[in-house]
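Quick review question:
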């Protein structure tokens, strides 16, 4: 990709995306930069990527062709207002801010700007993100292809109607945190039953990875894969019955629902 990618906000997501793009050779170090007022975030960005991080958002916008708005939703308006005068029709602007709709981004930037709302997750760092994205009316099919290429370089990506982006946030944007909790709790269970901590954690993480890979690579419904693990009168069905009794499935459904609703609430920040 020949474009220079600039980030406003050099925090966790900017670092994860930038490292993902670099790992896939989508951009070189000299095609990346970030603007951030926080010295700690700037050094972390440069340590993580080798690329420049500066305390000058205007310079980032002037150099960038693809501009990624990677600040928290509550700082988005002030970050954009400070650089709005130098954002032109030549920029492709990507916002990763949870909950902030295209209509709000158009209010801040102008509806004649090419804007894409995206929702990746932190696993872009390891090339395993799960993303959704949607475009405003000014962005072109070529812009969609560029964003698709960027996001698919660091995982899977779906172009979706904007009405579904909050649900993407509730499921895969926030989802890594749910799975970390699952892995931690599985390891705790193993430790409770006598396994050494490092062995338990490794078994738990590999079990989650293996199960996810089975779903992706066999294309078999997870219910059928679950049935294949549970022998009649065996161990697994006891574990499954315990999870049902503690509301495991319902807890996950409610978690996605609550996070989606929170994303909707963030719309006007
Ligand atoms: N974390 C995640 O898993 C995901 C997050 N997102 C979205 O990504 C966005 C960034 O999140 P995350 O990376 O976690 O946040 P971080 O807090 O790690 O990074 C944001 C950075 O932006 C800086 N900042 C604040 N104001 C400005 C400004 N005016 N100009 C430039 N930089 C500024 C912050 O500095 P300071 O610390 O001093 O405020 C901070 O360093 C959020 O909108 C979030 O909704 C999307 C998907 C997943
Ligand atoms: O918790 C948050 O608000 C952000 C958005 C998705 C993941 N983290």
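Suggested answer, residue by residue:
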């Amino acid at each position: 990709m020949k474009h220079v990618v600039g980030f406003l906000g050099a925090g966790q997501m900017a670092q994860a995306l930038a490292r993902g793009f670099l790992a896939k050779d989508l951009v070189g170090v000299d095609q990346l930069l970030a603007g951030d007022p926080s010295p700690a975030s700037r050094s972390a960005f440069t340590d993580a990527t080798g690329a420049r991080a500066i305390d000058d958002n205007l310079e980032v916008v002037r150099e960038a062709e693809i501009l990624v708005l990677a600040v928290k939703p509550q700082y988005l308006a002030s970050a954009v207002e400070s650089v709005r005068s130098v954002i032109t029709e030549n920029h492709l602007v990507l916002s990763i801010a949870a909950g902030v709709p295209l209509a709000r981004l158009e209010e801040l930037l102008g509806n004649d700007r090419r804007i894409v709302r995206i929702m990746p997750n932190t696993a872009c760092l390891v090339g395993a993100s799960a993303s959704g994205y949607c475009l405003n009316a000014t962005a072109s099919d070529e812009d969609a292809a560029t964003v698709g290429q960027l996001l698919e370089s660091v995982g899977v990506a779906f172009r979706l109607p904007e009405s579904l982006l909050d649900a993407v946030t509730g499921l895969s944007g926030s989802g890594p945190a749910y799975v970390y909790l699952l892995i931690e709790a599985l390891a705790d269970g193993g430790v409770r039953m006598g396994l050494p901590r490092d062995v338990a954690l490794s078994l738990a993480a590999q079990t989650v990875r293996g199960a996810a890979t089975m779903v992706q690579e066999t294309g078999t419904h997870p219910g059928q894969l679950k049935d294949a693990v549970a022998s009649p009168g065996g161990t697994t069905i006891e574990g499954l019955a315990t999870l049902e009794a503690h509301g495991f499935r319902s807890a996950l459904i409610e978690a996605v629902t609550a996070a989606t609703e929170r994303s909707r609430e963030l719309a006007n920040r």
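Why it works: The first strand starts at residue 5 and ends at 8. Residues 98, 169, 173-174 surround A1CAB (ligand 2) (CB under 6 Å).
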